[in-house]
Write a structure and sequence with these properties.
alpha/beta; six-stranded parallel sheet; two-stranded antiparallel ribbon; 8 strands; about 10% strand
């Protein structure tokens, strides 16, 4: 039917319908998850084990007490405030110094030099193996009643995909106890993978030869593309930020770019003093390394297009930065994916996709509510 023409003719009635929709007869799930809404979900959130996968160079504490701002500023606390059980949230145990182990890839001859490294090899295998063990531990800690929700930040996103791999769940020869993985699949342990600011594909074209993962990311993209295990029941959500447009020089030169996408004056002053130009020029360098093209928009480190996984539920967040600090500085930010004011912009959608909470009905987004109300008023039309 012609919804547009009908909507024009019935605009007074639709206005009434939207107002009426907000009353208790037509409950809608709020976009913010908190302890009260968790109770409305039957306490579902408090039963879900969560494993947070840190990004490259990140320490476990970055998600607990970022830049020593206090635990209340941490991503974990944000999740607890929304009804998750702190005893069932585990950041992958990781100290910053451990990332030097990636240099072990230098001894992966000749793969490192040919750009054909595997994610389970000398460079990243230690992370992948540890992540599988921690997922297993949290699954058991949750009483084996609920599968684990994986949240991968930055490199933790593609490394989580590597841990899921082809779906087999082999914890290695040092595992004690047959029950831990005997006959199990990744889908028996993980219910969903949510990535925030992750890189999901190698650089495009000729730039692929310069990929910093030396082939590990290309291996994942080739062997386990997109939402690879969706058919086995694992849900995928990818979240990307649209905050900074990469430009090689002179970001203040008049161009068709929003003022909000060239960085704040405070951070740009720091870059200028250091001879790095601006947030836009720093982003250009990062985007170019990740994708092969620096003239893109993204979260300041990862270009938006590269952070959205094919086949997943894709969420774009305007103005959201890559991590707990402005890229390359010690300036804390309250607008990264795990910030108190940002979490609700993606978490509810992620929980819906994971089947942890019911999908919201009649949410006021675009044309959907108009069609929904019309169908409610005129069933069968």
């Amino acid at each position: 039917m012609n919804y547009f023409r009908l909507a024009i003719g019935l605009s007074p009635l639709l206005t009434w319908a939207f107002a009426f929709q907000s009353c208790s007869l037509f409950p809608r799930f709020p976009t913010r998850i908190n302890a009260e809404t968790n109770r409305a979900y039957g306490g579902a959130l408090s039963k879900i084990p969560i494993v947070i996968c840190p990004g490259f160079g990140n320490d476990q504490t970055d998600y607990l007490n970022p830049l020593n701002q206090g635990t209340e500023a941490g991503f974990v606390s944000a999740l607890v405030r929304r009804g998750f059980d702190p005893d069932l949230i585990q950041v992958l145990p990781l100290q910053r110094i451990e990332w030097v182990r990636v240099a072990g890839g230098l001894f992966d001859f000749p793969n490192f030099y040919r750009g054909t490294m595997r994610p389970d090899g000398l460079g990243y295998g230690w992370y992948v193996k540890r992540l599988r063990h921690v997922v297993e531990e949290m699954y058991v800690k949750g009483g084996k009643e609920e599968k684990v929700l994986l949240i991968g930040h930055s490199a933790g996103g593609w490394l989580a995909r590597a841990a899921l791999g082809d779906g087999s769940w082999d914890l290695g020869s040092d595992n004690e106890g047959e029950d831990a993985f005997g006959g199990a699949r990744a889908a028996n342990r993980v219910r969903a993978l949510v990535t925030v600011g992750a890189i999901h594909k190698p650089p495009a074209g000729n730039a692929a030869a310069t990929c910093v993962t030396r082939g590990a990311l290309a291996y994942i993209d080739d062997k386990y593309p997109g939402a690879y295990l969706a058919g086995e029941g694992i849900s995928y959500v990818s979240v990307g930020g649209d905050a900074v447009f990469g430009r090689k020089e002179n970001p203040r030169q008049p161009v068709n770019i929003s003022e909000e996408k060239i960085g704040s004056k405070e951070v740009n002053d720091i870059y200028k003093v250091r001879g790095e130009g601006s947030a836009s020029t720093v982003a250009f360098t990062a985007y170019e390394a990740v994708s092969g093209n620096g003239k893109m928009t993204g979260d300041g480190v990862v270009p938006l297009e590269w952070s959205l996984l094919e086949g997943s539920r894709k969420i774009t967040l305007d103005g959201v930065l890559h991590s707990i600090n402005e890229p390359g500085t010690t300036l804390p930010t309250d607008r990264w994916y795990g910030s108190e004011g940002v979490v609700d912009r993606w978490l509810t959608d992620a929980l819906e996709e994971a089947g942890i909470v019911e999908r919201r009905k009649n949410s006021i987004t675009g044309a959907a509510p108009w069609i929904s109300v019309l169908e409610m008023l005129f069933p069968g039309v």
